[in-house]
Amino acid sequence: MNYLKKIKYNSPVILSFTLLSLFAVILGYLTAGLSTQLLFCVYKSSPLNPLSYIRLFTHILGHADWQHFLNNFMLILLVGPMLEEKYGSKKLLGMIVFTAFITGLINIIFFDTALLGASGIAFMLILLSSFANIKQGGIPLTLILVAAAYIGNEIINGLISQDNISQLTHIIGGICGCGLGFVMNKK
User: Fold this and answer.
1) In CA terms, which of 64, 77, 108, 155 is 20 to 30 Å from 5?
2) What homologous superfamily is domain 11-184 in, according to CATH?
Protein backbone atom coordinates (compact mmCIF):
# COMPACT_ATOMS: atom_id res chain seq x y z
CA MET A 1 0.00 0.00 0.00
CA ASN A 2 2.93 2.36 0.62
CA TYR A 3 3.93 1.91 -3.01
CA LEU A 4 0.72 3.60 -4.15
CA LYS A 5 1.57 6.69 -2.10
CA LYS A 6 4.83 7.04 -4.02
CA ILE A 7 3.14 7.22 -7.43
CA LYS A 8 3.01 10.84 -8.63
CA TYR A 9 0.73 12.38 -11.22
CA ASN A 10 3.89 13.98 -12.59
CA SER A 11 2.63 15.30 -15.92
CA PRO A 12 -0.98 16.43 -15.51
CA VAL A 13 -1.60 17.56 -19.09
CA ILE A 14 -0.06 14.52 -20.76
CA LEU A 15 -1.58 12.04 -18.30
CA SER A 16 -5.03 13.68 -18.47
CA PHE A 17 -4.83 13.74 -22.28
CA THR A 18 -3.96 10.03 -22.24
CA LEU A 19 -6.80 9.15 -19.87
CA LEU A 20 -9.35 11.21 -21.83
CA SER A 21 -8.28 9.53 -25.04
CA LEU A 22 -8.43 6.10 -23.40
CA PHE A 23 -11.99 6.92 -22.26
CA ALA A 24 -12.88 7.98 -25.84
CA VAL A 25 -11.51 4.71 -27.25
CA ILE A 26 -13.41 2.61 -24.71
CA LEU A 27 -16.57 4.62 -25.34
CA GLY A 28 -16.07 4.08 -29.06
CA TYR A 29 -15.94 0.32 -28.54
CA LEU A 30 -19.03 0.39 -26.29
CA THR A 31 -21.04 2.41 -28.84
CA ALA A 32 -19.78 0.51 -31.92
CA GLY A 33 -18.03 3.66 -33.14
CA LEU A 34 -21.02 6.00 -32.89
CA SER A 35 -19.48 8.18 -30.15
CA THR A 36 -16.22 8.33 -32.09
CA GLN A 37 -17.95 9.58 -35.21
CA LEU A 38 -20.19 11.99 -33.31
CA LEU A 39 -17.65 13.48 -30.88
CA PHE A 40 -14.07 12.41 -31.63
CA CYS A 41 -13.71 12.76 -35.38
CA VAL A 42 -13.52 15.96 -37.45
CA TYR A 43 -15.09 16.19 -40.91
CA LYS A 44 -17.04 18.62 -43.05
CA SER A 45 -20.45 19.25 -41.55
CA SER A 46 -22.97 22.02 -41.20
CA PRO A 47 -21.63 25.21 -39.60
CA LEU A 48 -24.94 25.33 -37.74
CA ASN A 49 -24.10 22.13 -35.89
CA PRO A 50 -22.40 23.09 -32.58
CA LEU A 51 -20.57 19.75 -32.52
CA SER A 52 -18.68 20.84 -35.65
CA TYR A 53 -16.75 23.33 -33.53
CA ILE A 54 -16.20 20.97 -30.62
CA ARG A 55 -14.83 18.27 -32.96
CA LEU A 56 -12.14 20.71 -34.16
CA PHE A 57 -10.51 20.06 -30.79
CA THR A 58 -11.81 16.66 -29.66
CA HIS A 59 -10.73 14.73 -32.76
CA ILE A 60 -7.34 14.24 -31.10
CA LEU A 61 -9.02 12.07 -28.45
CA GLY A 62 -10.60 9.58 -30.85
CA HIS A 63 -8.75 6.61 -32.30
CA ALA A 64 -9.75 3.92 -34.78
CA ASP A 65 -8.66 1.05 -32.55
CA TRP A 66 -6.30 0.02 -29.72
CA GLN A 67 -3.27 -0.18 -31.99
CA HIS A 68 -3.85 3.36 -33.25
CA PHE A 69 -4.21 4.58 -29.66
CA LEU A 70 -1.11 2.72 -28.44
CA ASN A 71 1.08 3.88 -31.33
CA ASN A 72 0.27 7.52 -30.61
CA PHE A 73 0.41 7.43 -26.83
CA MET A 74 3.64 5.47 -26.56
CA LEU A 75 5.31 8.45 -28.22
CA ILE A 76 3.26 11.04 -26.34
CA LEU A 77 3.96 9.44 -22.95
CA LEU A 78 7.65 9.15 -23.79
CA VAL A 79 8.24 12.72 -24.96
CA GLY A 80 5.38 14.70 -23.37
CA PRO A 81 6.39 14.73 -19.68
CA MET A 82 9.82 16.18 -20.49
CA LEU A 83 8.20 18.95 -22.53
CA GLU A 84 5.60 19.62 -19.86
CA GLU A 85 8.41 20.04 -17.34
CA LYS A 86 10.31 22.38 -19.69
CA TYR A 87 7.42 24.58 -20.87
CA GLY A 88 4.89 24.14 -18.07
CA SER A 89 1.43 22.60 -18.12
CA LYS A 90 -0.47 25.68 -19.34
CA LYS A 91 1.85 26.34 -22.28
CA LEU A 92 1.91 22.70 -23.31
CA LEU A 93 -1.88 22.51 -23.13
CA GLY A 94 -2.05 25.62 -25.30
CA MET A 95 0.29 24.02 -27.85
CA ILE A 96 -1.82 20.85 -27.94
CA VAL A 97 -5.07 22.82 -28.39
CA PHE A 98 -3.48 25.00 -31.09
CA THR A 99 -2.19 21.99 -33.03
CA ALA A 100 -5.55 20.19 -32.72
CA PHE A 101 -7.35 23.25 -34.08
CA ILE A 102 -4.94 23.75 -36.99
CA THR A 103 -4.98 20.09 -38.07
CA GLY A 104 -8.77 19.90 -37.74
CA LEU A 105 -9.34 23.15 -39.63
CA ILE A 106 -7.03 22.20 -42.50
CA ASN A 107 -8.75 18.83 -42.77
CA ILE A 108 -12.26 20.28 -43.08
CA ILE A 109 -11.18 23.03 -45.48
CA PHE A 110 -9.17 20.90 -47.89
CA PHE A 111 -10.37 17.30 -47.54
CA ASP A 112 -13.60 15.33 -47.66
CA THR A 113 -12.31 12.72 -45.24
CA ALA A 114 -12.77 12.27 -41.52
CA LEU A 115 -9.78 12.79 -39.26
CA LEU A 116 -9.18 11.35 -35.81
CA GLY A 117 -6.27 10.53 -33.56
CA ALA A 118 -3.41 12.17 -31.73
CA SER A 119 -0.71 11.57 -34.32
CA GLY A 120 -0.51 15.28 -35.18
CA ILE A 121 0.08 15.96 -31.48
CA ALA A 122 2.70 13.19 -31.32
CA PHE A 123 4.57 14.72 -34.25
CA MET A 124 4.28 18.20 -32.72
CA LEU A 125 5.83 16.87 -29.50
CA ILE A 126 8.59 15.00 -31.34
CA LEU A 127 9.69 18.10 -33.24
CA LEU A 128 9.22 20.32 -30.19
CA SER A 129 11.49 18.00 -28.20
CA SER A 130 14.34 18.88 -30.53
CA PHE A 131 14.27 22.35 -28.99
CA ALA A 132 14.79 21.03 -25.45
CA ASN A 133 18.44 22.07 -25.27
CA ILE A 134 18.44 24.97 -27.70
CA LYS A 135 21.12 27.58 -27.22
CA GLN A 136 20.67 31.28 -27.99
CA GLY A 137 20.92 31.98 -31.71
CA GLY A 138 21.52 28.37 -32.75
CA ILE A 139 19.50 25.81 -34.62
CA PRO A 140 19.94 22.35 -33.10
CA LEU A 141 21.28 19.74 -35.51
CA THR A 142 18.91 17.26 -33.83
CA LEU A 143 15.99 19.41 -35.02
CA ILE A 144 17.22 19.27 -38.60
CA LEU A 145 17.76 15.51 -38.46
CA VAL A 146 14.44 14.76 -36.74
CA ALA A 147 12.53 17.07 -39.09
CA ALA A 148 14.18 15.56 -42.14
CA ALA A 149 13.57 12.01 -40.95
CA TYR A 150 9.99 12.35 -39.74
CA ILE A 151 8.62 14.90 -42.18
CA GLY A 152 10.56 13.44 -45.12
CA ASN A 153 9.23 9.99 -44.32
CA GLU A 154 5.67 11.31 -44.15
CA ILE A 155 6.01 13.05 -47.51
CA ILE A 156 7.29 9.84 -49.10
CA ASN A 157 4.54 7.78 -47.43
CA GLY A 158 1.94 10.29 -48.56
CA LEU A 159 3.09 9.92 -52.16
CA ILE A 160 3.39 6.12 -52.31
CA SER A 161 0.96 4.76 -49.67
CA GLN A 162 -2.71 4.06 -50.13
CA ASP A 163 -3.64 3.72 -46.46
CA ASN A 164 -5.97 5.49 -44.06
CA ILE A 165 -3.15 7.35 -42.33
CA SER A 166 -3.15 11.11 -42.69
CA GLN A 167 0.46 11.93 -43.47
CA LEU A 168 -0.58 15.56 -43.90
CA THR A 169 -1.69 15.64 -40.26
CA HIS A 170 1.72 14.33 -39.24
CA ILE A 171 3.43 16.99 -41.35
CA ILE A 172 1.20 19.77 -39.99
CA GLY A 173 1.81 18.56 -36.43
CA GLY A 174 5.55 18.59 -37.10
CA ILE A 175 5.37 22.09 -38.57
CA CYS A 176 3.40 23.25 -35.52
CA GLY A 177 6.08 21.70 -33.28
CA CYS A 178 8.84 23.54 -35.15
CA GLY A 179 6.99 26.84 -35.16
CA LEU A 180 6.00 26.60 -31.51
CA GLY A 181 9.55 25.56 -30.60
CA PHE A 182 11.00 28.65 -32.26
CA VAL A 183 8.37 30.92 -30.66
CA MET A 184 8.72 29.42 -27.17
CA ASN A 185 12.51 29.52 -27.26
CA LYS A 186 12.84 32.96 -28.81
CA LYS A 187 13.56 34.47 -25.40
Assistant:
1) 77
2) Rhomboid-like (1.20.1540.10)
